[in-house]
Specification:
heterotrimer; A alpha/beta (367); B alpha+beta (380); C alpha/beta (266); A: 367 residues; alpha/beta; seven-stranded parallel β-sheet; five-stranded parallel β-sheet; elongated; B: 380 residues; alpha+beta; Butyryl-Coa Dehydrogenase, subunit A, domain 1; Butyryl-CoA Dehydrogenase, subunit A, domain 3; four-stranded mixed β-sheet; four-stranded antiparallel β-sheet; 11 helices; globular
């Protein structure tokens, strides 16, 4: 573990993005990070470089240019086909020590969160995990605080010349946000939460102009201390109610067309990546089996999103879902008790509202 | 007088609580509704040492104390009256008399498997004509060479259909009255032994409560427990210990009812206010909590006295008397505070009320406890 | 053979968390618990102990109250506990923490057939960095997101989870594994375990204990040894009263979808 002089901050320039590929395909988050990297690089007055490792992946590199990468370093070898910590960490660290980027962004996937800390330790630098917001410019950061925090900005002092990357991320299970800086070492490393950064529009001209560079590297079998025996893709699995991130529940309000009501809930759940649940009325009536029931005598759920369709909000139901992060309710009766716990309420006929909801959610998740 | 619990007791309470919330509570409604004996829970409890808490390690116990055992029954009862009595009857009424009165061979044969939960225990004293007046034993035991022949029946036996080992009482010499009663250890596979019909009960519905039938039941000579004619004394001493278990069960039921009531009254809104904001609710809950806290002190005191080998008969009787009547009262008030919803099976308080009632009756009715207390005070 | 398990005592952030009027977290509102992933790591070690009779050493860097957590792990079945505790260690970020824990593991001693287990991520810091960084500093191969462990002769074969499937990965011992909740169901403390846990050895490593290790210098630990600093911390605005959307038409649905997208809820 040779240390390299990474305290001479001025010697480090460039925003690098580790571009993860699996099975020869780039991950969607790579485009998000290149786009975000482009914004940061523009503020820093420097270039964006993608770093792509794999076997026979040169062909997919140019696409990264379309989102703002000036250059992509591509390293190819059969030993890089499947991810191993040792191979990827060695190659990228060797490259970093040679080229000295100022910032290194990594998508916070299962692989990114394995790779990032190993490299940060080897490079003796700071790594911030699972970031949801990045700023260089201080005035932009202050704007961000104004929108997203309860800090009284009048009491805060800021050094407006500060050019450190300010990396904001959730802690304490999301109850606390922390902005982290790495003031003494470079590169400043960050794993970035997938699906948060905005992907820039694709520009074919930029893609064509992107430089593909294939640096020399050394990788022996003896460098790899783990062996990948197989890679298995999962078949569609049963998601259970208690672990679901999104629950779309139906209640007595679907009685006029039970099949259609459940079908709408299933479609809405699918768009949002969730599962269907039901109030006690639906399980008593036999529309859903007992394992779908949310409530006092059913299951207690705490998903990110809970959508209650045609559910009045009797106390036994509320008891099973009141700690959901975001509660959306649709009910014909605008005085239904469910609206007292909902974050968003729509007073209307779910058979008319839900198809529209499905379309609108499809639109925003398609980005 | 230091009322703080030791760090081990605090840790045990946390473990019991987590186990009760995670493993026992989710099954409680089903156990009650379907009258289902919680077999899988007993296996899990056995693995953790909860079926032999205060017996020494040399006999397979966990090496803790009577207080730790009472706390276990208490935490279980907070979420399920049935599961609590399974542990209590097994420990206090079967393992305890074998431990306290058994020969070394009997202890080594029965205790390790009872403590690990591999075997479940039960106690057979009550007969159709011998309830509170337990002395009128009609079950007989006659010595025939190297074995006893036992004839008779027992009723209302807890754990019956699932127990492997039974401590049974029978008349060996009618002419001696209560000094003619002896105790025996009977295994379920002894010839002539069978378990009869299951009682349909108001509460603790998952508890297996059945008749035991002994028809020329052959019991090896070495299974006499304690001395000949000493059985009634063993029964009474055993029931003294059992009272601590039932007091703990009642304690847990009452405490569970108070917890559920506080939770519910903080959510339920009527007349534009949470129920918990009404003074009636506050006063009721204050009373309920105070009664259960008093019950806890009585129960823990009795447990500590037994552990210290001090005379504890009156303490156990007071604890059971008070805790049982308090639990019944508290559970009833809980249902009342829940209103209509509390009367339905959507909420656990109606089950707690049904479960609490039996604590005033079995292992010595409240009236019997009063007799014991008055007798101990020499009021005659 | 022994297994060293790194554990952390954390506030329970999964229940109700209270926020102070000044916007800081009310730490007292969160009871202290064993980090859930770490419990899975300890359980994995205990299952191997059940099969092989190996020794389990649990190590934690934390303030003195962390001792009660270590006692709980001893009550679960661990054999020895080490608390790494010292004023000098305070203020450490993940880099400095992993440095200190690596020093502690060196002091405990790592043989060729030993294993190091960590929970994947702590529920307070939420970084998932300490495990891999310890592995780097001890020069051990690492396998993270472990959902299954098969022990062979001088090696482990693990199922390493990906978002959409898994990899089966082999590594020689000694190596470091980070464990996730899918790995197992942690056992409870047993009654006998609780009665014995205060008799099992628990020792405290402070700065003096570790200072001779090359990894441990005044500038490699604590704030001085931390490449990252906290610039600002804040609580997100609290959930207020809900919004009734106007109308029950496409416009209302569009507003709903846009609002959720903006807040990154979808």
């Amino acid at each position: 573990m040779a240390a390299f002089n990474n305290t001479d901050l001025a010697a480090f320039r460039g925003v690098w993005v580790f571009c993860e590929q699996r099975g020869g395909k780039l991950m969607p988050t790579d485009f998000e990070l290149i786009s975000e990297g482009r914004k940061l690089a523009d503020e820093l007055g420097t270039e964006v470089c993608g770093v792509l490792l794999g076997d026979g992946v040169e062909g997919i590199a140019k696409e990264l240019g379309g989102y703002g990468a000036d250059r992509v370093y591509v390293c190819e070898s059969p030993r890089l086909k499947d991810y191993t910590t040792d191979a990827y960490a060695k190659l990228i660290c060797d490259l970093v020590m040679e080229k000295k980027p100022e910032v290194l962004l990594i998508g916070a996937s299962n692989i990114g969160r394995d790779l990032g800390p190993r490299m940060a330790a080897r490079l003796h630098t700071g790594l911030t995990a699972d970031c949801t917001h990045l700023d260089v410019d201080v005035s932009k950061y202050i704007e961000f605080l104004r929108e997203s925090s309860t800090i009284d900005l009048t009491t805060q002092k800021f050094n407006m010349e500060d050019r450190n990357l300010k990396m904001t991320r959730p802690a304490f299970g999301g109850h606390l946000m922390a902005t982290i800086i790495c003031p003494r070492f470079r590169p400043c490393m960050s794993t970035v939460r997938p699906g948060v950064m905005k992907k820039a529009p694709f520009d074919q001209a930029k893609a064509d102009a992107c430089i593909i560079e294939k640096p020399a590297f050394s990788l022996q079998d003896s460098d790899l201390r783990t062996e990948v025996l197989e890679v298995v893709k999962a078949t569609r699995q049963m998601v259970d109610l208690a672990g679901a991130k999104v629950v779309v529940s139906v209640g007595r309000g679907i009685s006029k067309d039970v099949q259609k009501g459940i079908a709408l809930a299933e479609e809405l759940a699918e768009v949002l990546g969730g599962v269907v649940g039901g109030s006690r009325a639906t399980t008593d009536a036999g529309w859903l089996t007992a394992d779908y029931q949310v409530g006092q005598t059913g299951k207690t759920v705490r998903p990110k999103i809970y959508i209650a369709l045609g559910i009045s909000g009797a106390i036994q139901h509320i008891a099973g879902m009141q700690d959901s992060e975001c509660i959306i309710a649709v009910n014909k009766n605008d005085t239904a008790p469910i609206f007292e716990v909902a974050d968003y309420g729509i007073a209307g006929d779910l058979f008319k509202v839900v198809p529209l909801m499905i379309e609108e959610f499809r639109r925003v998740t398609a980005k | 007088m230091d009322f703080t619990l030791s760090r081990e007791h605090e840790m045990l309470r946390r473990m019991y609580r987590e186990f009760a919330e995670t493993e026992v509570k989710p099954l409680a409604a089903e156990v009650d509704e379907e009258e289902r004996f919680p077999e899988e829970t007993v296996r899990k409890m056995g693995k953790l040492g909860m079926m032999g808490i205060y017996f020494p390690k040399e006999y397979g116990g966990a090496g803790a104390d009577v207080l730790a055992y009472a706390m276990c029954v208490e935490e279980l009862a907070k979420v399920c009256g049935t599961t609590a009595v399974v542990v209590s009857a097994h420990t206090s009424l079967c393992s305890a008399p074998i431990y306290e009165h058994g020969t070394e061979e009997q202890k080594r044969k029965y205790l390790p498997k009872l403590c690990s939960g591999e075997w479940l225990g039960a106690f057979g004293l009550t007969e159709p004509n011998a309830g509170t007046d337990a002395s009128g034993q009609q079950t007989t035991a006659v010595l025939d060479g190297d074995h006893w022949v036992i004839n008779g029946s027992k009723i209302f036996i807890t754990n019956a259909a699932y127990a492997d080992v039974f401590v049974i009482f029978a008349m060996t010499d009618r002419k001696q009255g209560t000094r003619g009663i002896s105790a025996f250890i009977i295994e379920r596979n002894f010839p002539g032994f069978s378990v009869g019909k299951h009682e349909k009960k108001m509460g603790i519905r998952g508890s297996s409560t059945c008749e035991l039938i002994m028809e020329d039941c052959i019991v090896p000579k070495e299974n006499l427990l304690g001395d000949l004619g000493f059985g009634f004394k063993i029964a009474l001493q055993t029931l003294d210990g059992g009272r601590i278990g039932i007091a703990a069960q009642a304690l847990g039921l009452g405490e569970g009812a108070v917890e559920e009531t506080i939770k519910y009254t903080k959510e339920r809104v009527q007349f534009g206010k949470r129920l918990s904001q009404f003074q009636n609710t506050q006063f009721q809950i204050a009373d309920m909590h105070t009664r259960m806290q008093a019950a806890q002190y009585l129960t823990y005191a009795a447990a500590c006295k037994k552990q210290a080998c001090q005379s504890y008969s009156i303490d156990a009787a007071m604890a059971k008397l008070f805790a049982a009547e308090a639990a019944s009262d508290v559970a009833r008030r809980a249902v009342q505070l829940f209103g209509g919803y509390g009367y339905t099976r959507d909420y656990p308080v109606e089950r707690m009320m049904r479960d609490a009632k039996i604590t005033e009756i079995y292992e010595g009715t409240s009236e019997a406890q009063r007799m014991v207390i008055a007798a101990n005070l020499q009021v005659k | 053979m022994k297994i060293i398990v790194c554990v952390k005592q954390v506030p329970d952030t999964t229940g109700k968390v209270a926020v102070n009027p000044d916007g800081t977290l009310n730490r007292a509102s969160m009871p202290a618990i064993i980090n859930p992933d770490d419990k899975n790591a300890v359980e994995a070690a205990l299952q191997i102990k059940d099969q092989t009779g190996c020794k389990i050493v649990v190590v934690s860097m934390g303030p003195p109250p962390a001792e009660s957590m270590l006692r709980e792990l001893l009550a679960m079945g661990a054999d020895e506990a080490v608390l790494v505790c010292g004023r000098e260690f305070g203020g450490s970020d993940t880099f400095a923490t992993s440095q200190i824990l690596a020093g502690a593991i060196n002091k405990i001693g790592l043989e060729n057939d030993d294993l190091v287990f960590c929970g994947r991520q702590a529920i307070d810091g939420d970084t998932a960095q300490v495990g891999p960084q310890i592995a780097e500093k001890l020069n051990l191969p690492q396998i993270s997101y472990v959902a299954d462990i098969q022990l062979g002769k001088g090696e482990v074969i693990c199922r390493r989870m990906l978002e959409d499937g898994y990899m089966t990965v082999r590594a020689k011992t000694p190596c470091l594994l980070t464990c996730i909740k899918e790995l197992n169901m942690p056992r409870y403390m047993s009654v006998a375990g609780v009665m014995d846990c205060y008799c099992k050895p628990l020792c405290v490593f402070n700065y003096d204990t570790l200072k001779d290790d090359p990894l441990i210098e005044p500038d490699t630990i604590g704030l001085k040894g931390s490449p990252t600093n906290i610039f600002k911390s804040f609580t997100p605005p609290q959930k207020g009263v809900g919004t009734m959307l106007e109308g029950a038409d496409r416009a209302a649905c569009a507003k709903l979808a846009d609002s959720l997208a903006e807040k990154h809820i979808v």
